Amino acid sequence: MKAFAVGAQGEQPAHLEIDTPEPDPGEVRVRVTAASVNGFDLAVAAGWMAGFFEHRYPVVLGREFAGVVDAVGEGVSGIDVGDRVLGVVSKPFLREGAFAEYTTAYADGGLIGAPEILTDSEAASLAHTGSTALAILASIPEPEGKKVLVVGATGGVGTLFVQLASAAGAEVIATGRTVDGRELLSELGAAHSVDYATLEASVREIAPDGVDVAVHLKGDPGEFASLVKDGGLLISSVLYSPDMFPDADRLTPVPIAGYPSAEALERLTGLAGSGELRVIVDREHSFDEIGQAFGEYGHETIGNIVIRIG
Ligand SMILES: NC(=O)c1ccc[n+]([C@@H]2O[C@H](COP(=O)([O-])OP(=O)(O)OC[C@H]3O[C@@H](n4cnc5c(N)ncnc54)[C@H](OP(=O)(O)O)[C@@H]3O)[C@@H](O)[C@H]2O)c1
């Protein structure tokens, strides 16, 4: 099958022809229709994940996907060949990935039936980003009435988190560089949307005494930690260890690791299926354009960048 993969340690990812994976017990194989680009994929491509995960080469890139079940492993129940699903490749080692014609994932906690109202590209933009957004929300005790600053809110994680936090009653101050981005954040429920080029002044105007929580999805948290009140939370999906956080003597550092538990996937598909949670896709690329999509990730994108595969 065709795949976008790292062939051997130290190599750059490339379009390769590799063996089609077989589902292990507890797994299903999916014919991938769409997969979205995440920071994790760029980190694997750059070799930064070598110290965190065992790499079994060839390592196929891509985590978050939508597709159709094509084979079912031993011991799997409730999912059948032909089901339209969405999910995340979340194994303890790196080998299978979503930027390929076929991938495998855990049946319990790795994937779930895709809501009919989502397009393939939308379905491919929910499981990894959404479970991360849910983990961030879960780390805020009693969010109702709290002032929550979200820096990097226009991306895949941010556009989902802004909706979840606003629905939970938080007063969300969300950043976006472009006018379109800020308008969308307001539509998604943010009480305030501000340009991060003037972050300090804009936030001080809205919250003169500071915010209760800052969520770091992009940028340098050293530049906005001072906007959080003493005793507040600094939550980050980027920093993975408390000792990497600024102002740790004054603020509680909360590193986030999103995990697509069965419960998280059920909640996300329930909300998206009923139209309560909008999944934002910025643009689509063909399988041959993955390199270009990687170059575009993180710069003035609104929502996810999706690779069309099937
Ligand atoms: N820990 C985990 O489990 C986990 C899971 C998923 C993602 N992540 C990480 O979480 C972060 C967010 O992911 P994502 O996929 O939502 O990212 P993304 O799609 O790249 O979105 C981030 C957005 O931030 C904006 N931005 C760029 N530079 C900025 C700056 N200096 N200050 C403020 N905003 C800036 C960009 O839009 P504008 O410039 O147009 O505003 C961009 O669209 C990434 O670092 C990703 O690797 C971690």
What does this protein look like?
With 310 residues, this protein is of the alpha/beta class. The protein folds into two domains: 2-127 and 259-308, Medium-chain alcohol dehydrogenases, catalytic domain (Quinone Oxidoreductase, Chain A, domain 1, Alpha-Beta Complex), CATH 3.90.180.10; 140-255, NAD(P)-binding Rossmann-like Domain (Rossmann fold, 3-Layer(aba) Sandwich). 23% of the residues lie in helices and 29% in strands. It is built from eight helices and 18 strands. The protein has helices at residues 39-45, 120-123, 127-138, 156-167, 179-187, 199-206, 262-273, 290-296, and strands at residues 2-6, 14-17, 27-36, 54-55, 59-60, 64-72, 84-88, 93-94, 102-106, 111-113, 147-151, 171-175, 192-194, 211-216, 228-236, 252-255, 281-286, 304-308. Strands 3, 6, 7, 9, 10, 17 and 18 form a seven-stranded mixed beta sheet that branches. It has a six-stranded parallel beta sheet with strand order 13-12-11-14-15-16, with helices on both faces. Helix 3 (127-138) packs across helix 4. The longest helix is centred in the middle third of the chain and has 12 residues, at 127-138. It starts with a strand and ends with a strand. The mean pLDDT is 96. It binds NADP nicotinamide-adenine-dinucleotide phosphate. NADP nicotinamide-adenine-dinucleotide phosphate binds at residues 38-39, 128-129, 132, 151-152, 154-158, 175-178, 181, 196, 217-219, 237-238, 256-258, 297-298, 300-301.
